[in-house]
Task: structure prediction
Amino acid sequence: LLIDRYDGLVSLRTQAMCRLHVVLRELIAGGAPRRLSANRAAKLLRSVHAAGPAAIERKRLAVDLLADVRRLDQQIAATRSRITAAVEDSKTTLLELHGVGPIVAAYILGHVGNPARFATPERFASYNGTAPIEASSGPRKRHRLNPRGNRKLNHAMHLIAVTQIRNDTPGRVYFQRKLAEGKSKKEALRALKRRISDAVWRQLQVDLKLR
Result:
């Protein structure tokens, strides 16, 4: 419930910020910067001196959209706090994995439910879509993205993988080794996600025993 609420709020904020960006581009000569925070948008709005009915209405609209963004920021922060508390209360060991914070843990816990239904890491990988599909041609063995499975869980595996690659972790070493073997970046990332899926499954089994 909480992670779905969080996703919905983030989506609404993205929409509001995109609309605000469009309006600011019409109000400001040279447009607005691509990376735009609420504070920066407010500063830009204060510098706008609207002339004419259309410009005045655009500025009013921008003010309304900025208020939406600030309200959503507060709701996102409050929901994140509730998620953090819920994850801490769960006593999950998922947080021991590099790249797993409260939000990612909530994705996993919320969409896995009872870990006992995944008797093997292979079943879990199949469910979360990290089990690759073979797409070999001739003597060269290749695997492609598996579009099936729970996409929210797959997204969680992706977030963990990206975080590990950006930092000095065994996951980064594994990713670089796959590149050295001739894998493309996408193939290496998929291989790392599959490896991470196994690690997540193991922690979920630990959680199951601790209940």
